[in-house]
Amino acid sequence: MKQNKYKIDLKQIMDECSLNGSGADEGKVLYNALVSHIDSNPQHNVFYLSINESFFDASFAREGIVKVALHYRMKKGLCLIDLDEEDTLENILGPVAKLEQPIPYYLGEKYNLVSYKKIGSPSKTNLPIFEFLLSRGLTTATEVADQFDLKLSNASTKLKALFEEGFLLREEQKSTSGGLEFFYFAIK
User: Fold this and answer.
1) Structural contact between residues 62 and 24, judged by C-beta atoms closer than 8 angstroms
2) pLDDT along the chain (188 residues), means of 10
3) What is the pTM assigned to this prediction?
């Protein structure tokens, strides 16, 4: 399975909607615009939000970016790209902590998660599994169980937790045995 990805230009949406990146009310307008873009592209499951040349405050980010990621949790993924500097992330950090919604991002070629203490990053016991998925791509519970010497039920529970916490997406596909199996992948 190849992840279907779609790029959305935040600056372009802000210009089209006459938004200056300030306040919760403007963030709600952005929310509606992003949901419209995402819903009109159902064939994609990962959406890259290009932050390049966009400036915004924390309440705008909460209502317009983090709530979109929360809205699509376990269905579609939102990943930030084209960040000029990490200072931009400071206005996303508070909403991530408040809403307990992880947001992956790229700073240059480096993949990371917007996180605050334990909020926004996988638990200590699930972090190795998350890192395994980052390096591997598409993975099943069977592969995780084999890699970490876990019982299949334990591997499945850990993957399901990462999925429900918003760190992973999954698709149901036919397995080689003929049944159905979940295939997990990181939002990246």
Assistant:
1) yes
2) 74 96 97 97 94 91 97 95 78 87 88 69 90 90 95 95 93 82 91
3) 0.84
